[in-house]
Amino acid sequence: MKWLFGFILTAFTCSVSFAQTSYTLDHYLEQAQNNSPLLKDLKNQVSSAKIDSMRMRAGLRPQVTGTSAGLVAPVIGGFGYSGAITNNQTFSALVGVNQQIIGRNYRNAQLAEIALQQDSLINASQLSIQDLKKAVIGQYITAYGDLKQLKFTQEIIDLLGKEEQTLKKLTQANVYRQSDYLAFLVTLKQQQITLQQARIQYKTDFATLNYLAGITDTTSVDLAEPNIQKSILPYAGNSIFFTKFRLDSLRLANSNNLIDFSYKPKANIFADGGYNTDFIQPAKSFGTSFGFNVTVPIYDGGQRKLLHKKVQLQEETREYYKFFYTRQYHQQIDQLNQQIAETEKLFAQIDEQIKYDETLIKVDTELMQTGDLKIADLILAVNNYLTVKNLFTQTTINRLQLINQLNYWNK
What we know:
Blueprint: H1 2-12, H2 25-35, H3 37-59, E1 63-72, H4 83-86, E2 89-101, H5 104-172, H6 178-213, H7 240-262, E3 266-277, E4 286-295, H8 303-369, H9 375-407
Antiparallel strand pairs: 1-2, 2-3, 3-4
């Protein structure tokens, strides 16, 4: 019965005997980013912030407006508005220019506020990409694990199915008992049920992967083995996950500057020119005017100090959140590294168990050729081998999922 040992060797190597795959992990990551409405929304918000900056710069330039007005107040039979008030009839067509005078530092602080908003949106976009990649990669790993189980189970059924007829003939020749054949047949039927369950699970998780990537195709295809390696994580201070705290600090400092600038004197200069007449001397009513106004804050009841106090409280809150987040960040990284290391150690034990099971099956196969072994013992050895092989697959998937969680922090 050399067929059985050959079956075990083939089952052991079935994990590398996949059909040609159609899609890779990079394909789904690219589709997910291209189809994400959130990323498109954030991209448009960044563009909108750039437009706001351009609008503010334009608003700091001289503003030119054109105005025109006319008035007729008739006096009929001695009744009507007083001409001293209305001039009876007037007409104006003017071009006005207004220029707000602010210091360079105040202007830079206003522009910095918009720039910080833009940087925050860029950071939010980067974080959203990381979240999306983590979700897609995690689901891809899950679906790939289902596919490995499906392929392995199918390989087992194919091999057991080939030998079922042989065992049936040997049973008819009284080499084995009917109960031995039925026990073997039960094992085959169990694997067929397992195969159907694996097929359903793969289709479900594959559909979820397409859903996350925004793909509407419902056709099931094989997935390529994901090439996922541990990334070298950046220094926490340079990570995009800590950029928010840095931007918040700059925003609060800029808020203090804007508060101070709002209490400085403000000045405008203006001028106009054109035609403005009451029709007494219409030909000589072309002219111009110009002027200025200055606003100086004197007393606000202490509001300025209160506004700075609010900013200070926000800064204290930011510092606490940063401290707490930093502590959790390092704790999570350390925990993931520890779990990955422990999982990798488990592979050595599983490999050793696989070798023991292979040796046991080889011995059982030789004993079976002489009729000195019960089929039940061989089936038990085969089931133990299948269990440890499934454990190997599950451990592989768990390791990839842990690496995916760790790599989430690699930006």
